[in-house]
């Protein structure tokens, strides 16, 4: 009896400790000329669980084939977890993504509302976005500088309404007036979501899925489709 109570108490303490931790996501993207690189690091349970994603290559082939993306994944949960995949992003892939989103919307009660509530608990602790460029002509570089400033402030302004900004975003645009086309940009962001709210949001999502007849089955079907390769798009 006492052993069972002790085990239950330990489990409850572990759950409480996990709920007090944060899911920390660090995102980095840089582009200089034709060189692209993106990194995503996700830490959970006080850093005991870590996931790493790296995109060292993104190549545009042509309008039909689209982009070829190389993705490297690793984590500290499974042994030999490192893997490298190549994904093609084109019109057909975009249509599949749109179809998948429609399935999620039909399979979940008020899925958009759930997403909005979840993102409203995400806290951005650092956001740094710098860009340097040249159009090759001084007058057009000056015009493009104003356009880029407008674009950046609009995007960051929209983001500030979706999440909680804990620090002032640092934005910079450096025009280069050389007589050649140049472009480089670097984006860094650190976001946190309380694990306790993530657990709560997961239960709410499950409840919303179960309220739709066949909703859970569609989610599992979509998951199997995303894990598989070359499978047909699941029907709703």
Automatic annotation (TrEMBL):
<feature type="transmembrane region" description="Helical">
    <location>
        <begin position="191"/>
        <end position="210"/>
    </location>
</feature>
<keyword id="KW-0812">Transmembrane</keyword>
<protein>
    <submittedName>
        <fullName>DUF2953 domain-containing protein</fullName>
    </submittedName>
</protein>
<dbReference type="Pfam" id="PF11167">
    <property type="entry name" value="DUF2953"/>
</dbReference>
<keyword id="KW-1133">Transmembrane helix</keyword>
<dbReference type="InterPro" id="IPR021338">
    <property type="entry name" value="DUF2953"/>
</dbReference>
<keyword id="KW-0472">Membrane</keyword>
């Amino acid at each position: 009896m006492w052993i069972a109570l002790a085990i239950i108490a330990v489990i409850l303490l572990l759950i409480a400790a996990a709920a007090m931790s944060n899911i920390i996501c660090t995102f980095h993207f840089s582009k200089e000329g034709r060189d692209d690189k993106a990194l995503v690091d996700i830490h959970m349970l006080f850093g005991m669980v870590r996931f790493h994603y790296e995109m060292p290559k993104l190549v545009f082939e042509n309008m039909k084939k689209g982009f070829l993306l190389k993705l490297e994944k690793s984590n500290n949960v499974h042994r030999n977890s490192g893997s490298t995949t190549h994904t093609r992003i084109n019109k057909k892939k975009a249509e599949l993504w749109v179809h998948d989103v429609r399935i999620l919307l039909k399979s979940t009660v008020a899925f958009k509302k759930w997403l909005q509530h979840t993102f409203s608990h995400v806290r951005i602790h650092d956001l740094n976005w710098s860009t340097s460029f040249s159009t090759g002509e001084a007058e057009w570089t000056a015009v493009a500088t104003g356009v880029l400033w407008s674009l950046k402030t609009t995007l960051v302004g929209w983001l500030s309404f979706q999440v909680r900004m804990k620090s002032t975003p640092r934005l910079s645009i450096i025009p280069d007036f050389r007589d050649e086309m140049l472009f480089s940009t670097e984006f860094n962001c650190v976001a946190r979501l309380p694990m306790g709210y993530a657990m709560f949001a997961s239960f709410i999502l499950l409840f919303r899925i179960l309220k739709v007849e066949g909703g859970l089955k569609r989610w599992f079907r979509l998951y199997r489709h995303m894990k598989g390769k070359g499978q047909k798009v699941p029907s709703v």
